[in-house]
Description:
The protein is of the alpha+beta class. It has one domain: 3-Layer(aba) Sandwich (YefM-like fold), CATH 3.40.1620. The chain is built from 4 helices and 3 strands; from the N terminus they run E-H-H-E-E-H-H. It has helices spanning 8-13, 15-24, 42-49, 55-59; strands spanning 4-7, 27-31, 34-39. Strands 1-2-3 form a 3-stranded mixed β-sheet. A hairpin with a 2-residue loop joins strand 2 (27-31) and strand 3 (34-39). It starts with a strand and ends in a 25-residue tail after the last helix. The model has no long low-confidence stretch (mean pLDDT 90).
Amino acid sequence: MPITTLSSREFNQDTSKAKKAAKAGPVFITDRGRPAHVLLSIETYQSLVGPSASIVDLLATPGAETIRFAPPRVRKLAKPVDLT
């Protein structure tokens, strides 16, 4: 997987070059010679963060029924309104 490095100026002048390079591998964008940002293709990003789970999937996880959850009781939801 090739790694491409572009200065901020190069990135601003030729964004399409950076996007093409990101299809092959990460693109490091530098500010004053120091890495500041990384550009990734969406496929690479999604492979790094993994699939997102829905609340239904999380509740269906084996052992979820044994989790204790006791939220504090709410006494007052709002202040009484004075209509006089």
